[in-house]
Amino acid sequence: MRKWGFLAAVIAVATVVGAVAVGRTAAAPQRTTSTTITGAGSTFVQPLVSQWISPLGSAFGYELQYSGVGSGAGIAAITARTVDFGASDAPLSPDQFAACKGCAQIPWALSATAIPYNLPGMKSNLHMDGPTLAKIFMGQITTWNDSAIKKLNPKVSLPSTKIAIAHRSDNSGTTYNFTDYLSSVSPVWRTKYGKGVAVNWPTGTGGKGSSGVAAIVAQTAGAIGYVDVAYALKNHLKFFSMKNRSGVYANPGLRNIAAAAASDIKPAADNSLSIVNPPKRFRAAYPISTYTYVIVPEQSAKAPEMKKFLFWAVTKGQTYGPKLLFVPIPKNVLVISEKTIKKLHT
Amino acid sequence: MASEQAAVEPRRPLSGRRLNTGDLILLVTAASAAVAVVALVALIVYKVVEGAKLSFQTFGISFVWTVAWDPVKEVFGAGSFLFGTVLTSLLALALATPLSIGIALYLTELAPRYLRGPITSLVETLAAIPSVVLGLWGIIVLGPFLSQHVEPWLHDTLGFIPLFGPPSTAGASVFTATIILTIMMLPIIASITRELFLGVPRDLKEGSLALGSTRWEMVRGVVFPYARGGIAAAMILGLGRGLGEAIAVTQVIGGGVFISWNLFSTGDTLASKIAASYQGATTNVEVASLFYLAVILLVFSLVANIAAQWIVRTVNRKQGGAAT
């Protein structure tokens, strides 16, 4: 008898607790009168989006919630419509576009990939060019005092340390930007490995996330890798000055990224842009620069709010970028972004 | 209804006639919980197999042993991951088992009483460390330590064995992953084995000692045979942990699509490949191929489980059904 009474009590308590919980979640949306906009995706763009939360609140009364779960997960989330927007550093593939059913992709931020290295005793901003970088990542150049690297750095006495390559083991927009660049400077790379959020790396050690790659570079004398520029600066990694097509060695600074961004004339039909290895006349361009994209359904119940938010993001929102090394998107791209935003409807 | 009544009927004396409805509720609740598990497993298997369909149609059964993973050219295969999974799990098991048995023996037979409690709870705490934390520790502490101190030494002294090739990375390697897996298996095998050893009847042990055997002879002649089946089962549980561990392995193994016997080079496993790539797989074929890896992993775990049950039964039959 007593046992049954106890069981009944447990069930009763559980029911009450459950009912209270349900009641509370049901009541929650009624309490808030403001609009909540949720997004998920790229960790790369997260610092910028976080900066937008409070100004957006005071401008429109919107509450912006963003989770940096990675570009891939962001695409999955918007495909399943569990968020209002997704964010990805690599443009959607045709398969992803098809799965997303009526999504639009809008370039909304602009930054670059840095090439960090670990050579104890060496200064930062050693010189590097595209073909040599491709050969290093293909495993054809294996020591730091190789003649190809020496030629780029005539005044530096490079050590005979073995080169240790670090790359991303997870799928990543940074990998897309980096392999896009390698493909454009090295025909061999393009035919053998190509570009993508993950490629079939010929050699090297994979690290998970920017932090994983940075950890390998930091721990290994002779290591070289690639991480987004904000991450490289924040963690005080030494990185290369990259030779662009005009022969100038450029650092991934705001001015140099902006110069690269000026190079893309017209985006493709899906709004994707590639600004790696820009033509000669962009003298200051940093050659491994990239756009990152917001992905929204063209038709949604929240379209009016999303329109307001996105217009704000590509205009006023851009002013929060520079101190995080995001360059405001140039006029011609802004025009295209706004045209796409206008198409959103309920 | 009729069958439920029949099942409840014999138990009636236990709680009295009035609680028939209570018994019924209990039966229905318990049965639906059990059925839910079956349904859940069936649903998972169905979903995973269905997800893999496209890849199965594209690559066929040869996917299992093909060594390839090129998302750009859309060529996929499980060969190197299968190899990595088997290599890391079996090696980790080979390292963890003797260590665990040693720990269990010390805790049950040899350690002074005041040490047993603390060490036992420490071993169990080891099982509670989240794998992502172990992985982090693997990247920052264990990996560099192994590559700077342990790997060169092993290569110099045992380099003639292909497993101990030249150290080629700064920490992320198959070897680091194996050690991390060993640390994960250890508390599982050790705590089960300890329970088994505690279950050995005191009379048997004392009888053995009374007949003049040394402590080691007692352990070998009484404790081990008594616990053999259970230890085998514990090992399989540990192996299951090793086969399926994804996050920590992803953090320390370094990746790479090739088959190498050298423990000190990078590699990959089925679970770690899935963990690293499922987010942001860009083509349908890549997603399906990841599901295919999951199917292989499922089949693997199933085979391991069946093997475990078979081993336990065989061992027990041999000893005439003594233990577990």
Provide a descriptive summary of the structure in words.
The complex is a heterodimer of chains A (346) and B (324). Chain A has 346 residues and is α/β, with parallel strands linked by helices. Chain A has 13 helices and 14 strands. In chain A, strand 1, helix 2 and strand 2 (63-67) form a beta-alpha-beta unit. In chain A, helix 5 packs across helix 7 and helix 12 (303-314) packs antiparallel against helix 13. Chain B has 324 residues and is mostly helical. The model of chain B is unreliable at 1-8 (pLDDT under 50). In chain B, helix 3 crosses helix 12 (284-318) and helix 4 (79-110) runs antiparallel to helix 9. In chain B, strands 1-2 form a two-stranded antiparallel sheet. Helices cover 74% and strands 1% of the residues of chain B. Chain B has helices at 2-8, 12-15, 20-59, 79-110, 113-128, 131-158, 174-198, 202-210, 215-244, 247-253, 270-277, 284-318, and strands at 69-70, 75-76. Chain A binds chain B through residues 4, 69-73, 75-76, 88, 90, 93, 95-96, 99, 164, 169-172, 193-201, 205-208, 212, 215-216, 219-220, 223, and chain B through 15, 19, 22, 68-73, 139-140, 143-144, 169-172, 250-251, 254-257, 266, 276-284.
N-C termini distance of chain B: 36 Å
In N-to-C order, the SSE pattern of chain A is HEHEHEHEEEHHEHHEHEEHEEEHEHH
Helical proportion of chain B?
Answer: over 70%
Q: Nearest-angstrom radius of gyration of chain B?
A: 24 Å
**Number of helical elements of chain B:** 12
Provide the structure class of chain B: mainly alpha
